[in-house]
Amino acid sequence: MDVATAPGPVAAAFAARQQAWEDQHLSPLAARSYPARRAVHEPDCGLRTPMQRDRDRIVYSKAFRRLKHKTQVFVAPEGDHYRTRLTHTLEVTQVSRTVARALRLNEDLTEAIGLGHDLGHPPFGHIGEAVLDRCLQERFGRTFRHYEHSLRVVDVLENDGIGLNLGDDVRDGILGHSGRAAPPRTLEGAIVRLVDRVAYLNHDIDDAVRAGVLREEDLPLEPIAVLGDTGSQRIDALVHDLVEHSESAGAIRQGEDAGAAMDELRTFMFEHVYLGPPARREHVKIGHVLRTLFEHFVAEPGQLPDGGGVAGADHAQRVTDYLAGMTDRYCIRAYEDLTVPEAFAL
Rounded to an integer, what distance in angstroms lies between the CA atom of residue 273 and that of residue 280? Predict the structure, then answer.
């Protein structure tokens, strides 16, 4: 049965019904689901909006599945309850959808951006990103930014080198989700950009306390007084603040007090967790592992698996694609295979 040429009555009316619903219920500022704007034209699905279709393509991608074994803050955590890049992604997406619904924006677009925003993260989180960036700059005069690589993943690397052919608004939101990137053009993308920070700060505090790196009483008093004593209270306060100020501004905005409190918490986390003494000790090890693999595959291109990646990529890009796609544990295993004598491997 060819549902594209012979749709049933529900599918035949779906797009028109969805467009009418959006015109009636969504804010005039919301991105619309139709028409789909893709690099390669394809017929719309009869039961999903183009953005729902993009969401499904992201969820079924290999890169999305690998997020469960990529670091959020703690490298290869042993406990069952620490966040990974996957759980972070799901938390960002859930909170972002809450904000989008409250502001009458496009939840499907927000969800697709949230699910896809971190697909390009290399192993070991932002430390791995910094190491890979330094290696590329020193050897090839190039840079590595995870948000740019997230777009490369969906445009080029997934689907056996064909890419996912996502819509322009989803691609724009993925590229613009980081504070180091140009802001996204849609309000939905701007939600994910801000909620990403809201989520990781508060959830990283939770993980740091669980790991014994922090105590609750170590947290700075002023931002806690403004936002709340627990992670759930702080996220709730920040989300309410974000929705109310955004509604009145017609843009995605935080209130001055909440924004200042979150900035103070972020500074505290960088000083005591992200760049604290325990983390710096691990950073040295991460740097050694990634740099060893980078130099090896630069010197031995024939040892890159799968023929070195997608067609048309030069050697530097093939090494980048391979290393950035690794999970933490696969990266460690590749390093051990390269450096540990086989007779001694247990």
Answer: 9
Please give the Cα distance from 93 to 74 (Å, whole number): 21
pLDDT confidence band for 48 (50 / 70 / 90)? very high
Provide the pLDDT for residue 344. Answer: 58
What are 6's two structure tokens?
């012979």
* Structure-token pair, residue 50: 């183009």
pLDDT over 90 for what percent of the chain? 76
Number of domains in the chain: 1
Q: What is the residue range of 89's domain? A: 9-278
Q: List b or e across 156-193, with b for residues whose CB sees 16 or more CB atoms inside 10 angstroms.
A: bbbeeeebbbbbebbbbbbbbbbeebeebebbbbbbbb
Q: Is the peptide bond before 35 cis (omega within 30 degrees of 0)?
A: yes
Query: For residue 214, what is the domain's CATH number?
Result: 1.10.3210.10
Q: CA 134: distance to chain centroid?
A: 21
Q: Are 113 and 39 a contacting pair, CB within 8 Å?
A: no
Q: What is the Cα–Cα distance from 184 to 251, expressed in whole angstroms?
A: 12
- Cα separation, 267 vs 162, in Å, equals 41
Closest CA to 151 of 137, 131, 168, 132: 168
